[in-house]
Amino acid sequence: MSRGWLLVVLVLLGGCRKDEQACPDSPRGGDWRDRFVGRYDVYDTLGTYRYAMEILKSNIPDSLYVVNWGNAFDVYVAHDDTDPTPFFNFAVYNPAYDRLGNRWSVAGQYDETFDSNYLINDTLRMSYFISNIAFYAEDGVPFFEWSYREYGVKQ
What we know:
Helix content: 10-25%
Number of domains: 1
């Protein structure tokens, strides 16, 4: 009998802990992409509002469509509808076209401290790098590259 209680206690302690990633919710309608879908207000790491962004389920299988990532790009993000992880698979987009038609290299960046590109509760922690080094001369724009850390808060 005491071994049974010990097993129950070990199972309970082995579940999600408050200091770790949030436990996945059960899928709504059987599609794990639903957890990402919505409108987000995006802030920098100091809490200053930067822009609004929207994430939609894509008609392309196993992907999401992001409208206004970085206040400039519309991109597809791979995420299988059966994948319960909160990882937001923001990949490399090269070239990515901004709203003015200029080309960029836009890539997700891993930042362990920031816990980047994960949805934690209703907050998407975004970490990415943009650069136009390969395109600025041909596009006739100034050279620019920057690394961003932002919080997208679902509304």
